[in-house]
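Ticket #452: bound-state structure for zinc ion.
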Amino acid sequence: MKFTTILLLAITLSFSTYSQVQIKPLPKAGYDQRIRDFVSNMKVVDTHEHLGNQAGYEKSGKLDFMMLLFHYADDDIKSAGMSKAAFERLLTDSMTVMEKWTAIKPYWEGSSNTAYNRAALLTADKLFGVKDINETTVEELSAKIKKAYETDWYNKVLIEKCNIEYVVVDGEDRTLGDPKMFKFVKRFGEYFFVNSSEKIQSIEKKEGVKIQTLDDLVAALGVSFHKAMDKDFVAVKIGIAYERNLLFEDVSKEKAEAIFDKVKNLSGSTALLYNGSEMKPLQDYMMHRILDLARANKTPVEIHTGLQAGDGNYIENSNPALLANLFLKYRDVQFILFHGGYPFGGELATLAKNFRNVYLDMCWLYIISPSYSERYLHEWLETVPANKIMAFGGDFLNVEGVYGHLLFARQIVANVLISKVKDGYLSEDEALKIAQMILHDNAIRILKLNNQ
Ligand SMILES: [Zn+2]
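RESOLUTION: The complex was predicted; output attached.
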């Protein structure tokens, strides 16, 4: 070999390996396969889903290959140029499978590189034995999906194929399956978006209370919170980064009251913008009241951070660093920050490291970007105690999505642990223990899933 070739090879090798500190002796041969097998086969807890029920999908107009494309893949297909209205038509019975394929084809081919769409391809292959999504396969794939829904499909996918012990659902549907397996989180969005007299009336009706003052609104929130607690509710979910920024100032009651008193007299078109700055002090005040309830009842609070799904939003609204005042004020509330904060992974690391009451949940993350997930899981395992990381939530409306996403997650978690063992940063035993913690035990402990 020429000297220049050797030099080039040496340079390439030095860049292709992680530069890592060695603490433990290097592992025994076969460690990589042992770690991968362990992570691939272990029972996991799925911390976050939006599942609709099987019967609903059986009746829907998307019980064909669109089952694999209607959630998340749809965002990238629209981002690649397909109009919202054209996409919506694909979710009805008004077109044949082939007509649907012809309409979606240019946008699918323009976006099939993204991880959302790679997840759909992996699911088609591993769940239905269909190697690609194209004009020669969509009929077969559609027929297989229809047939699957004639079986006990949810249990088959979630229990047999995914090996999931618990699923935490962000939704209200209690007919998904075994109540021992499905747990629920509750949003209190109506208390943030109470921008007109009609909205106040709708809370009155729902909770059977009279609301004339801000104190009454706070009392209604208490009723709503305790009703949820009597059921199977394990955490509060805050999704408001879709509508406004995550800075919740500690506003005075008078300031919030002034807005409530104004809102009380507004109706129809005079309602305040629910996502406008005028509503913000009232929303800030209600967030603090939710945290009072969470503190009193030891209920964890999950917060959407980072990327907002769909088309068009303000990413700076969802920066988790904006939440620091809440972490300081509510030291004994457990805050769970969602989605790896994409793209705020470094901010997330510092928050979870600095604050003992801040936890990380990697739900949705692997299909946003497998390489970001891998890079930051590496970094989080160096910066954040492993007992505060929850490493899987599918974040899907349908079980097929959960399955594909979990295949991504198991691969990435194994990749990171193998790499850390290879470098001697962790021993093989430590890596297996961490997998057990981040994919299973932490979620059960933090969300108290064994309690009910
Ligand atoms: Zn979600």
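RESOLUTION NOTES: The first helix runs from residue 3 to 16.
TICKET STATUS: resolved
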